[in-house]
Amino acid sequence: MSKSKHANRLLQEKSPYLLQHAYNPVDWYPWSDEAFAKAQ
Q1: Are the C-beta atoms of residues 26 and 18 closer than 8 Å to each other?
Q2: Would you report the helix, strand and coil content of the chain in percent, each value rounded to 5?
């Protein structure tokens, strides 16, 4: 599987673990109020 060329919201994070998933083909949200609002 090739990496996506578009970054998701994890590109803004400082955690090395989260940054390694910044180009996954999933629209990940970091733990935040925005993520909870989107989930509702």
Answers
A1: no
A2: 40, 0, 60
